[in-house]
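Q: Joint fold for the lines below.
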Amino acid sequence: KQEVTQIPAALSVPEGENLVLNCSFTDSAIYNLQWFRQDPGKGLTSLLLIQSSQREQTSGRLNASLDKSSGRSTLYIAASQPGDSATYLCAVIEVGGSNYKLTFGKGTLLTVNP
Amino acid sequence: NAGVTQTPKFQVLKTGQSMTLQCAQDMNHNSMYWYRQDPGMGLRLIYYSASEGTTDKGEVPNGYNVSRLNKREFSLRLESAAPSQTSVYFCASGGRVGYQPQHFGDGTRLSIL
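A: Joint structure:
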């Protein structure tokens, strides 16, 4: 059974710092990996989706990398801002025939202090 | 642009009552999903619909039924609510299953007493 772990569970940084969030998964036969953010009381917002054939994706100050062989993904946030404060979740997606499986990590709670 | 709209936003039920959670999307997406989010358990997929007319079980389907009413709407029904179904329920929609990002609604907070 796929297990997704996110470390650290919580992170507090001063504004302007660059930071890395980690996501590891146990079964490397994944189709793709998606990073989300979740604000309190809200649904999830998709940040980046990395196909299994890709090694990284970038959007603005965000860069996500994927290393299937080691079962790891990282989300790099450059020049963090207080508005980046949220819970960040990674999800691994497995697709086989008509079967679809998505497994979420429990998230990293990020606080960016002004 | 509404995106994914869920109703109701909050609901309290008594054990044994039934209820339907509604979800509608206006992004012309083919796939739609229902998740539940519980403290310490993370998000888990209940059911999904890859396209209009199809539905499939996810990780935790027991106690739930779904209907893909049309391309826009995907409902989740609790036939006989149990306290273990107290949770926050999220609906999402997306393009091709597994290949394209999902877009989430703001959730329905459901308490079962």
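Q: Anything notable?
A: Chain A has a mean pLDDT of 92. Chain A is about 0% helix and 60% strand.
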